[in-house]
Design brief:
Length: 297
Amino acid sequence: MLHKQIFSMLSGIFEIKVPHNKSMKSSVILLSILIATTCFSFAQEAPTTREMNLINWMEFAEFVPDQIETVLLPVGTLEPHGVIPNGADNLAPERMAKEFAGELNAMIAPTLNYGMTGSLQAYPGAFAISEEAYELFVSDIINGLAGNKFKNIIILNGHGGPQTAILQSIAAKLSPELRVRIMVINWWSVVSEDTFAVFGENGGHSGNNETAYIQAIVPEHIHKDRYTGEEMTTAYPAGSTWSAYPFPSSIGLYEPGQGYPTFSEDQATEYYEKVNTRVFNLIEGIIEKWDLAKLYR
């Protein structure tokens, strides 16, 4: 009886007339094939790639902005990170973008790998952009994304310090000028609760939290054998109590005695999943509220 009810409902939707000499069971099979084919066709309504580096200009025009109006822009910098890659601030937001793009129906802009490194720029392999140059360059990137008719520009930032304030200032200025929605995410701050949940304490720059996330991405580039212990770390000063340039350690702790790297595979996997879930939910929720309010529509 159930298959008859299903057929009756779906045949009405698809306006299918069944000849009297056909069995109901055969018709249900035929209808199922039709539905499966239709669903497969819908499933193909996605670009061959989500990366702007890889997509062809003609395919881009077919999807943006009619079908895709969100773009993810990973930004970071090159600076020392204890015993993990110098490009950790780029690797983390770049991986998040790849994890989120499909479900958010978003494109991924090329990663901006160079940023305002600040007090760690004296370390080998570090690279620093001046505030003036960075502000102009990021502004031009956002102008370019808006010019390509993206409505939602999500900046996934992997680097702290003055860079966070500059990005927020740019977003506040350009959003009303370009009539686009811009979101800046400093992922390590967003997921502070998850850091405590996984490690039972606070984190740090290339501390337990950042090391774990990068370990989940590129475990082959985590050099645990180079970690000699607490002497490789320094807790950040409270307020304006002191400052030092360059900063004396490439592992900076948010709180004294907390945040040392653990190198635990289980914690890395758990943290990676929690971080991605929380950041994704935040982005999805903000876009939904933008749409609900019909902002810049």
